[in-house]
Amino acid sequence: MAKKKKSIKGTRTEQNIVLAYLNESQSYARYTFYAKQADKELYFPIGVIFRQTAENEFNHAKVFFKMLEGGVVDAKVPTDAGIIGDTATNLKISMGEEANAGVKGYEEAAKTAQEEGFPEIAEHFLAIAKAEQHHLDRFTRYLKMVEEGTVWKRDHAIRWQCLVCGYIFEGNEPPKVCPGCDHPYQHYMPLDEDD
After folding, report:
1. Ranges for the Ferritin-like diiron domain (predicted)?
2. Is there a single domain that holds both residue 81 and residue 127?
């Protein structure tokens, strides 16, 4: 006979899961908004990064949602009721969210889950904290590039891919105009290992 799974109802772990679900859902929406802003500023590769991260956050939300056991759980969720800023500002806000609600918050939630006897939930929190650290690192790199004007410049040759037609070019910078589709360099995504 299978052992009955321990309920999370009424635990701090349940509260942490609800907060994680709601925070991830907010992040999905926020990063989708930020992607559109990056596109408006012609930072198409950063738009791609925001969309990829939004998709990750959507899937994190699903993981946490599936851990819940139904019913209604009251939760006070800090909400960034901010304004969509320029891409540099949006990257800074994203870095703060990833560092605090993501990495630090999930490490603390994992500790609580472990203390309350939910080792599998703790493992999920720790694994997702690692994903959030990757998001933080990537946002940090792109903010530095935006601030230094090096989104499309490297000190060594790398591969660049046109986001429109898929043409791949190797050099320190992408071509000013894509030879495949005539779109400007802003449509190129770096393919170096840091991205």
Report:
1. 7-150
2. yes
Q: What is the CATH number of the domain that holds 185?
A: 2.20.28.10
Count CA atoms within 13 Å of residue 63 on its CB side: 20
What is the tally of structural domains in the chain? 2
24: Cβ contacts below 8 Å, ≥ 6 apart: 57, 58, 60, 61, 64
At 195 the pLDDT is 45
Tell how many helices (H) and how many strands (E) occur in the chain: 5, 3
Q: Residue 115: inside a domain, yes or no?
A: yes
The proportion of the chain whose per-residue pLDDT surpasses 70, expressed as a percent, equals 97
In contact, 22 and 77? CB cutoff 8 Å: yes
Return the beta strands (E) in 53-187 as ranges: 158-162, 168-171
Q: What are phi and psi of 88, to 5 degrees?
A: -60, -45
Residues of the chain below pLDDT 70: 1-3, 193-195
CA neighbor of 159 nearest in space, from 149, 145, 172: 172
- What letter represents residue 165's amino acid? C
State pLDDT tens for residues 24-58: 999 999 999 999 999 999 999 999 999 999 999 99
Q: Which two tokens stand for residue 80?
A: 């960034």
Rounded Cα gap, residues 118 and 111, in angstroms: 10
- Output the average pLDDT for the chain: 94
Q: Is residue 153 part of a domain?
A: no
- 168 and 83 inside one domain: no
